[in-house]
Design brief:
With 383 residues, this protein is mainly alpha-helical. The chain has a domain at 85-209 and 217-316. Helices cover 69% and strands 2% of the residues. The chain has 14 helices and two strands, in the order H-H-H-H-H-H-H-E-E-H-H-H-H-H-H-H. The chain has helices spanning 15-21, 25-53, 58-71, 75-98, 106-121, 128-156, 161-179, 222-239, 241-251, 253-258, 263-288, 304-314, 319-335, 347-382; strands spanning 211-214, 217-220. Strands 1-2 form a two-stranded antiparallel ribbon. Helix 4 (75-98) crosses helix 12, helix 5 crosses helix 11 and helix 8 (222-239) crosses helix 9 (241-251). It is globular and about 80 Å long.
């Protein structure tokens, strides 16, 4: 029998071995922060090079964007008004993403919601607040139905939702365009519009979203509604049984099914919720006034649906992070209006936005690839 003092404890069984191999939480956090800072610095440097290549001054461009979004009087109120529909679209995207579904038709769902709100808002009689609420409800229903069709096709006919939402988004935009060519649908009477302008009737003054004034900045109360809905989505998705089942469905549908989760019910429900948020965003854009003159035009969406989708991706499906990222996207939209004074095209703001989005998406991808390689190396070592 071997002497106990001569027995060697394997490294895998030593209590300090695992802790030595396991990286500390602080080190990992520092590493992630450094990675984000480096990516953002590189993105800003590339944006500065692009600005200089077009004959502009990058310092003047960044200063103009700050003036147009925050620093000038009344600008951060406008930025909040623009950020609200972006956040609403992002919240719906977070819900369907947690269920493992890919909805990229928010632009079309937003257009359908805005069209339904515009149709009801100018035709329904009654007190202004009542008409406003009903118009918003119809916008929610319109967006939910449009996304629900894609969900039904996914679970009843096994058609990928990534294709149906994209294609139905194109159909929705063309439907809105058709409605803006017919006075019986959305087009305003000839007496209320300029010749050949395809616009809807503007909402009456008492059916518009009320606005608040704070420190000289004016913004619609839909900003507060968007933040309140964000808290509600966080409670449901991260702190409820429904949210746990959605996450289970998104992680492993087979495990969720064996655990008693009705995949069809929760999947279609997630698509309905996603579309309803996009439809509400369309109604808020119409009645808020920050992104138009309280009426529909042909290019009404203005990319808000895609912006909300990007916000959800950048925030990595985290609700409170999405609030901050939505404000950043709103700043880039409102700040771009001041670029003409610098002699630089407003499209430069799109370039800056694209580079910043790429910079924010790269760190999670890099960390995932590195984690995947470590897992593969550990597996090969054991074999």
């Amino acid at each position: 029998m071997a002497d106990i003092g001569q027995l060697e404890i394997p490294d895998t069984e030593r209590p300090d071995a695992a802790s030595a191999r396991k990286p500390s939480r602080a080190g990992t956090t520092t590493e992630v922060i450094v990675l984000y800072v480096v990516c953002l610095f590189v993105a800003l440097a590339l944006a500065a090079i692009c600005v200089s290549a077009t004959g502009g001054s990058w310092s003047n461009v960044y200063s103009a964007m700050l003036d147009g979004s925050i620093r000038k009087p009344g600008r951060w109120g406008l930025t909040l008004g623009v950020s609200a529909p972006i956040l609403l679209v992002a919240l719906g995207t977070i819900v369907n993403s947690r269920a493992g579904l890919v909805n990229i038709g928010q632009e079309g769902q937003l257009a359908i919601g805005a069209s339904c709100s515009a149709y009801v808002g100018v035709r329904l009689a009654g007190p202004g607040p009542f008409v406003l609420v009903i118009a918003m409800i119809f916008g929610i229903i319109g967006g939910a139905i449009w996304a629900g069709i894609a969900g039904a096709l996914r679970y009843y006919r096994n058609v990928p939702e990534v294709l149906t939402t994209l294609l139905m988004g194109t159909v929705a935009l063309n439907l809105m365009g058709w409605g803006l060519r017919n006075t019986s649908v959305l087009l305003a009477p000839a007496a209320e519009r300029a010749n050949r302008n395809q616009v809807s009737e503007p909402l009456a003054a008492d059916t518009r979203i009320p606005r608040l004034t704070l420190f000289g900045n004016n913004f619609p109360v839909s900003v507060l509604l968007a933040v309140a809905l964000a808290v509600l989505v966080w409670l449901v998705v991260d702190r409820s049984v429904v949210g746990f089942r959605l996450r289970m469905l998104g992680s492993n549908s087979r495990t969720a099914h064996r655990s008693g989760v009705n995949e069809r019910r929760y999947g279609i429900g997630a698509m309905l919720v996603s579309g309803s948020f996009a439809g509400l965003a369309g109604g808020v854009m119409l009645a808020g006034g920050d992104l138009g003159d309280y009426q529909l035009v042909v290019d009404f969406g203005a990319g808000i649906g895609f912006a909300g989708l990007l916000v959800a991706l950048v925030a990595r499906q985290r609700v409170f992070v999405a609030i901050f990222v939505s404000f950043i996207f709103g700043c880039m939209r409102t700040g771009s209006s001041f670029l003409r004074a610098t002699g630089v095209s407003g499209r430069i703001a799109d370039v800056v936005q694209g580079l910043l989005v790429l910079a924010l998406l790269l760190p999670p991808a890099i960390l995932y690839i590195r984690q995947r390689r470590r897992a593969l190396s550990m597996t090969s070592t054991r074999v």
